[in-house]
């Protein structure tokens, strides 16, 4: 069981995130999925295949931390396990966002297989929780895309269990995952990632 | 004869599509044309030369599936036959959209004559009806531009009769055609195409 | 003397054009100037140095076809003569717009001195009055920038007197001039030009 | 002591600037900071770490020209001294804006260490106070990024004391600083800088 007021608050934060992210062009064509934690056992998450710029209350549902629907006949996002694995790994995480921007998609295909994207020397790295200076380096792993979500969830669990300070990851040809303690933190991380990915791409255009 | 309520619904979907597509910059300078099916014999289609971001009810008219005006003195889009040929070929298609984006125009001129644009490895390919994985390949033919619309209509009919699963095509230096069972499906296809075309162009900028 | 109702209509079309063009990013930082014809002898034109996205009635004034202020103490745009020379040359022109987009600025600097920009094979060329096919070629001259406006006005007069079908020109490192019979025509020309200039720049990025 | 009505006016100009600059994408992810002069001794400045598109009255505070908080328990922007050094150096400056655009970030990293960005031949250079022609040259210094703000403040003081006509500077991998007599002047300078930086980047893409 979960508190319905906490559910309503979480669902509303997902709906508003969708409007923002779709308007930026980062969740086109019913792609992407978003979630917000309700409590230690439950998260509110988008129903599969909905228009992310027009989410309403019936486009959000509840799953437990194993990705099973709770009090709902709907089918949650196909990538639900990529969300729940993060909530299990980080008890203080309150929101997970997955977006599909052009920049994330293109850059994830340009990074050579087996390599991560390394970001350094950007002041905006300080937008990530816990980062105090531009002098550090962020390592953003790029996982190969697959339709086998349980396998990918396990891959991300292993990687982030060993690199707990890193704020997100890319899936090749697919998109970005990031998280935060609150939805506001998580949206700030999305903005920072999109900014940094665009900087990297802009630089590669001039110096391929 | 056609049902006027179905006509009004179809016309309204065309008007709203125009507002969306113009705002995105995909139908500049009175370019583009849009249609929605009324019934087995009739479609609502834009009148020639109108501003696509400001369509009103008198900017939409009815044609039959041979492109002839029905109950109207207006002149329908010069490319009406490119719409009707699709409705005849696919009885379940409910909407056809033709847009003129910078990305579609530029990419269609960069694809060598006689070659198609091949899209693969993108998660967003799943936005097209019937596509379940990023592992397949979409083939987007590029037809040479011409002012001889009946000839181009016949060319597209022959090609799509043999490649019924492909979701759209480009005309060189001109734009994109795509369709769907509903206007929402068709708009999702436009968004997916624009996303994928931008990804391809972005990649070519870095790796020409 | 001029008809004040015709003046108010012309001024309003200038104000609304400004809102549109500024929102697109084509008239940043108080750059650009716009005009609309009142009658055979007078045009409404923007006052020098105003914010183009926030034009009000006192940001528009009247000049005669020699660029002299009429019934006004304001100073009209420094480039007033570039407008009036077009109205004198083409009695059917009803509006002249000058914009400062990034694309126009960059492309005008990339075209070699003494050469024009040639546009061909684009369907969108049909957006210009009188163009019926993509098979023709538009020649867009690029004049060197100067603060000697009377000299530049004379240069444009000589060129367009000999090439009356061409729809506009660039000034190097500065911007675009185009015109039309009505303000709507002129705005359509701006949209078409911006589209075509972006296509050309996008193509040069991939195939320098 | 300062006049509270002058404070309210200054604070409101900061709030509105934030809305504009965030909407343009120039202040993402709580980055950037803005200030407006109240009088010879005081400036209104953004509180550290706030969302720049949603500034309210409690996101702005007062500091003196040595960067010390006045009548406030809040912590002002970490870069407060970069603002106050400009107000001390230029008694006629009424506003200072610092933004974090992709273009400024990327370009500041592409300029070789020890070199400045030189801008010439652009008509839009006239958007800067005191510039009458495109024929001059603007020199935009690029300072290395550091978390030692007092040292950077001193560096900028020395440079601008010797180059008082130059309108702003870049910090490598970080962003842009510019100023003006009024907030409107300062916003015009931001727009002009963003335009010119984009022109430079666009040109480098085609001619690396």
TrEMBL record, chains A, B, C, D:
It is an enzyme of class 4 (lyase). Its cofactor is Zn(2+). Gene3D superfamilies: Class II aldolase/adducin N-terminal domain (3.40.225.10). One of its GO terms (molecular function) is methylthioribulose 1-phosphate dehydratase activity. It holds the Pfam family Aldolase_II. Its EC number is 4.2.1.109. SMART domains: Aldolase_II. Binds 1 zinc ion per subunit. It catalyses: 5-(methylsulfanyl)-D-ribulose 1-phosphate = 5-methylsulfanyl-2,3-dioxopentyl phosphate + H2O. Residues 12-201 form the Class II aldolase/adducin N-terminal domain. InterPro entries: Aldolase_II/adducin_N, Aldolase_II/adducin_N_sf, MethylthioRu-1-P_deHdtase_MtnB. Keywords: Amino-acid biosynthesis, Lyase, Metal-binding, Methionine biosynthesis, Zinc. Zn(2+) binds at residues 98, 100. It comes from the Bacteria. Pathway: Amino-acid biosynthesis; L-methionine biosynthesis via salvage pathway; L-methionine from S-methyl-5-thio-alpha-D-ribose 1-phosphate: step 2/6. SUPFAM superfamilies: AraD/HMP-PK domain-like. Belongs to the aldolase class II family. MtnB subfamily. Catalyzes the dehydration of methylthioribulose-1-phosphate (MTRu-1-P) into 2,3-diketo-5-methylthiopentyl-1-phosphate (DK-MTP-1-P). This is Methylthioribulose-1-phosphate dehydratase. The gene is mtnB.
């Amino acid at each position: 069981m979960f508190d319905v007021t906490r559910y309503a608050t979480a669902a509303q934060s997902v709906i508003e995130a969708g409007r923002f992210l779709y308007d930026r062009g980062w969740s086109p064509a019913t792609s992407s999925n978003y979630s917000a934690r309700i409590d230690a056992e439950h998260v509110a998450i988008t129903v599969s295949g909905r228009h992310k710029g027009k989410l309403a209350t019936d486009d959000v549902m509840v799953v437990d931390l194993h990705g099973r629907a709770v009090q709902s006949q709907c089918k949650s996002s196909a990538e639900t396990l990529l969300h729940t694995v993060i909530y299990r790994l980080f008890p203080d995480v309150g929101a997970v966002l997955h977006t599909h921007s052009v920049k994330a998609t293109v850059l994830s295909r340009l990074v050579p297989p087996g390599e991560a994207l390394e970001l350094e020397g950007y002041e905006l790295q300080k937008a990530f929780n816990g980062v105090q200076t531009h002098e550090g380096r962020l390592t953003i792993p790029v996982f190969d895309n697959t339709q086998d979500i349980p396998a990918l969830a396990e891959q991300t669990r292993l990687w982030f269990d060993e690199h707990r300070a890193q704020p997100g990851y890319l899936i090749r040809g697919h998109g970005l995952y990031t998280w935060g303690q609150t939805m506001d933190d998580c949206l700030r991380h999305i903005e920072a990632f999109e900014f940094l990915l665009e900087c990297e791409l802009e630089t590669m255009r001039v110096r391929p």
